Amino acid sequence: MTPRLMGLPIQLATRPFQQASPLAFLLPQFQPTRQAHILASLSDNPSAYNKRIRRGRGPASGKGKTSGRGQNGQKQHGKVPAHFNGGQTPDEVVHGERGGKNPFSVEMAPINLNRIQEWIDQGRISAAHPITVRELTQSRCIHQHKDGVKLLGGNDSGSETESTLKQPIHLVVSRASASAIAAVEATGGSVTTRYYTRRAIELIMKREIHPFLSRAWSAQAAPEPLLHAAADNAVDPDQQQQLADSVLPPPGFRYRLPDPTRRRDIEYYRDPAHRGYLSHLLKPTEGPSLFFRSPEDRKMTAGSRKEKVLPANRLW
Questions:
Q1: At the topology level of CATH, where does 109-274 sit?
Q2: Angle at 128 between CA 172 and CA 269, to 5 degrees
Q3: Residue 193 to residue 202: CA distance in whole angstroms
Q4: Confidence at residue 132, expressed as pLDDT on a 0 to 100 scale
Q5: What are phi and psi of 175, to 5 degrees?
């Protein structure tokens, strides 16, 4: 079929073109277009039709004669189990298995004091209130909170060098290094390590749970600098006694922040050297361990030894 020209009558469109006259510029100009190629470019929507590979149909499979399986071998005719080594003794039996995944390991988001000071200088974090995982995440100081935040005293390269803090800050993080604790306390600030779970951190971001108050660490046990965050997080100071004696979440929040239940976590946050939030539960002579007693505690519970008095008529 002869392609037609759009915008012309049928008689004019089917008439062969003649040589242009000298006055052709006075006539209306027509741009001939061919519409026959539209039939060859028709197709469905990208998600309307997907061609299925037909296994075992030769060239009609849609992916060549062998359908991408190759020429011969066990992989073409059947399935091969994972780590199959041709029938000989498997490598994990000959050489043994080494390594693995530690079920007790946690993945912390590291943060350096120099980066926090840079965020404070830019006005992205306020040093007037306690800095928790919520302030660090919302200000993009850290990008992934993971299982918690670990405070480091070095620079961004990771070396434990002297930090450049210009003002006292109060931090509530999951863990902290000894150099970071010393650098923060040298400027008059404080570091408190607190137990968090991934679910608890997600609820903290949604403001459905208090960032650090819980049953084991109530408003009475919290340090004085951290109490300024109580008013900012909808905690009524008149109900602090109710918070200390109740298992319910703080007023204004939906859930209660959990406390550690494993011995490993409890001993870490009971240690005053780690600035744990459970260190106030220790007795004067008690250590952070739940199994071993401190030397002072053993001396107090052992009592005085009685001297053995031999009779006068014994030779030895």
A1: Ribosomal Protein L15; Chain: K; domain 2 (3.100.10)
A2: 15
A3: 18
A4: 93
A5: -145, 160
Share of the chain above pLDDT 90, in %: 33
Best CA proximity match to 154, nearest among 175, 125, 131, 183: 183
Residue in the block written with tokens 């602090």:
240
123 vs 249, more confident: 123
Residue 146, classed as helix, strand or coil, is strand
Q: Are 153 and 160 in contact (CB under 8 A)?
A: yes
* Strand 149-152 with 170-173, pairing: unpaired
Q: 115, 108 in Cβ contact below 8 A?
A: no
59's tokens = 């060239």
For 178, the token pair is 């000894």
The arithmetic mean of pLDDT across residues 144-150, rounded, is 91
Query: Model confidence over 52-110: pLDDT tens digits?
Result: 777 778 888 777 888 878 888 888 888 888 888 888 998 888 988 888 888 888 999 99
pLDDT of 245 above 50: no
Q: How far apart are the first and last CA of the chain?
A: 134
C-alpha–C-alpha distance, residues 213 and 192, integer Å: 12
CA 280 and chain centroid, separation: 30
Sequence ranges of the domains in the chain: 109-274
pLDDT at 268 over 50: yes
